[in-house]
Amino acid sequence: MSDKMVHYLARRNMPVLRKRKSHTSLNLPYRPNDLALELMRSIIDHTKVFILALNGPAVGAGAAWFPGVADIVLASTSTYLQIPFSALGLIPECGSAISLTQSMGVHRANEFLMFGGKLTADDILSFGIANRIFETEGFGEKVIEYLEEILKTNDGKSMMEAKRLQNLPLRDSRILAVYNSIDALAERFVDGAPFERFEAKRKEMEVTYG
């Protein structure tokens, strides 16, 4: 990330991801898990209201990482979520086992994360993951219009303070869940299950698609 981009993001009060000094000074590689951890920490600790707008399918990381830690989730009618990690020998990434449970409840989260089923737009609304559903056509404009109306009638700092108070008791559990998921994922790779599953999927696709 360039210094100009870092400066721009800082002025916009947005999370900035930097390499840790320990990695730079010791000339160690910057591992993908470090980036994932820093990304999730930046979102969890972000002081402004974090709004996730989903316009279409979110599968895998897109469904696991962000919906549970977003403050507000707005989705289109074409949205669906699916996390098929168990089928690939993986585990729910980046603390999603906890963050999604906080949104949709233990039993629904268990079924969604363990069995890898698909949640439609109606599902994520009724399960408490999404706040509102908009039509796919003109989705971006409808989201902006909705948020502009909210800003006209509500004080920004009051909304940010409400977010802080709501998220304060959740923060530590979410950060710990990210660490735990990174450890669990590493154990899965040590066991070799993902390699076996991916190889089986590759052979299956070769047979199906030639």
UniProtKB/TrEMBL annotation:
Pfam families: ECH_1 (PF00378). This is Enoyl-CoA hydratase. It comes from the Eukaryota. Coiled coil: none annotated. GO terms for cellular component: peroxisomal matrix. InterPro entries: ClpP/crotonase-like_dom_sf, ECH/Chromodomain_protein, Enoyl-CoA_hydra/iso. The lineage of its organism: Eukaryota, Fungi, Dikarya, Ascomycota, Pezizomycotina. Gene3D superfamilies: 2-enoyl-CoA Hydratase, Chain A, domain 1 (3.90.226.10). GO terms for biological process: fatty acid beta-oxidation.
